[in-house]
Amino acid sequence: MAEPPRKLVEYQGWPKGIYPMSDGWVPPAYPTEEELVAYENKMNSRRKAVLVKRHVCVKDPEYERLSSIESLRKGEYSMLCMPIMEGPYSGEGEDRTWFLAVFYETAKKTKVERMFRSFNWDITEIEQVPVDPDDCQDWEKELMYDHGAGKFRAIVSECEYAVCEKGTPEYEDPWGPKFAEGPRWE
After folding, report:
1. Spatial separation of the C-alpha atoms in residues 128 and 179, rounded to whole Å
2. Cα–Cα distance for residue pair 186/13, rounded to 1 Å
3. What tens digit of pLDDT does each residue of 4-56 get?
4. Spatial separation of the C-alpha atoms in residues 118 and 126, rounded to whole Å
């Protein structure tokens, strides 16, 4: 028995918006049903890798080496890189601290550990946390598909992160720390 016809808006690749109009009209530049079916088949055929992650803090020189394309490809890992704001835990230039979430497939664990060891970092004792595909961020899902396709990348945060110690007003404030320059930020 044939599957009942689907509405265009039910396809994975349908652009979100006002189309189709009430009379069914869509702009000619919008994808056709055949293109949507092909796109959906392509998306569903992608391999989704099972990833784990480890959280590591490194200084700027190590960050530069670990985040290079050559290192990512050779070690077969990806990273989310977040710079720590200047303060007691991070300095300027080479003393800048980076908080890294390192993502990789469990089968690549030894390769990743060896890569970090080559930069004088032993991460074997750092907890390995599984990435739950049903309860993760969209960018983590994209990393799963990237790893499934053999692609690796470093995602660098646009913001600096502040470390707030327990017991300080910044830590207790649910909105986080306030900065004197904050109202002028855009």
Report:
1. 34
2. 33
3. 677 777 777 777 777 777 787 888 888 888 888 888 888 888 888 999 999 99
4. 17
CA distances from 178 to 91, 168, 169, 175 (A): 20, 12, 10, 8
CA distances from 15 to 10, 32, 175 (A): 10, 12, 34
Exposure on the CB side of residue 69, measured as CA atoms within 13 A? 1
β-pair type (78-83, 97-105): antiparallel
Residue 162 CA, chain-centre distance (Å), reads 20
Instruction: Write down the pLDDT at residue 33.
Output: 80
pLDDT digits (tens, 9 = 90+) for 117-161: 998 889 999 999 999 988 888 899 999 999 999 999 999 999 888
Q: Which amino acid is at 90?
A: S
Q: Look up residue 54 and give its two tokens.
A: 């480890």
Sheet of strand 78-83, all strands in order from the earlier edge strand to the far edge: 129-130, 51-59, 97-105, 78-83, 154-156
